[in-house]
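Please check this.
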Amino acid sequence: MTRLIMLLAVLAAFPPLSTDMYLPAIPLLQTLWNQPLAIINLTLVLFFAVYCICLLIYGPLSDRFGRRPPLIIGILIFMVGSFLCAASTGIEMLIAARIVQAAGAASAAAISMAIAKDRLEAREREAVMGYVSVIMALAPMVAPLIGSLMITRFTWPWIFVAQGMMGGVALVGVIFTPESHPASQDVPVKELVKSYGRILANGRFMSVVACTSLVGLPFFGFIAASSSIYISHYHLSENTFALFFGANALFFMAGAMVCARFGPRIGSVAMMSLGFAGLTAGGVVMALSIFTGPWALAVPMGLISFCLGISRPPANNLALEQVQEDAGAASSLLVFIYFMLGAGAMAVVSLDWENKVLFIGTLAIVTGSAASILWLLIKTRIRLPETS
């Protein structure tokens, strides 16, 4: 079980590691290549956009050919994209290389949840997802510190070299992991693609996905704007920024630990209700500017991240509980919607807002309130695990 948890955590960590290690370099690249933040952040926005599109491809492929073959190919693509990023000499080349990197990273997120669905029962799966979230939260804690260290001690391309090496570690883990879903030789790929139609028509699944995707928007906005706010606006050093960003990830990890420890006892419904309400409260604190300086962002964002940590694992588990087949396609669509909406939030927050902290706070209020209302309407209609 420990080996499976570690593999799922490494695979799920591809997106945060692919972005958070790189965040300290954004102000540097703005100066180096004389580009505005909106252009530099295309390396984030387009990464997630392509990542989301490719998610929809890997899900059906894993249902048809088994989990391991498309996962191995995806990791190899990710490694190639990482090394191309390291070799970039301008923003155009870096954007193109990030697109390649995203096309490979999508395999990890899409197929890791399908593997969890294959190998684990609902009760066990929710607990494992909580533990995976705890381990995964270490990525945004450590990644910016590693990125800032590489910038100060070496040069920024080494950030992407390290990501390529991480892909190699994941590749070894997948190669030595047994197949959890044998290939379905008698099912054409075009029939598996039709599974998206069945999933989109599943109102219970789509409702839960809508809730969990809405509450992720302020978090993605924070990721896109954090380096600009902390480094350019509050004039913190790259290392200090990494500490603030890592502290935020610590709150997310604390929420995930609470979910893993008390979630089975409290129940998914209560955990999600508490998380959505707390997200709204964090947005109010941020919008009212109760704190000053960098703490005006750090403190309420810590609350928001904590609430996301306690609500996302049960939300993902509940979404998968609404489907009885097409697990690969369902997990792909779940992550697709979450990250595609997140990419939109990244693009919007990168615009020339006079007060980005106020914008993120307002976004948290709106999305937290909307998710809470939707959850109140659907929580009595969805299929719950036996322990909830």
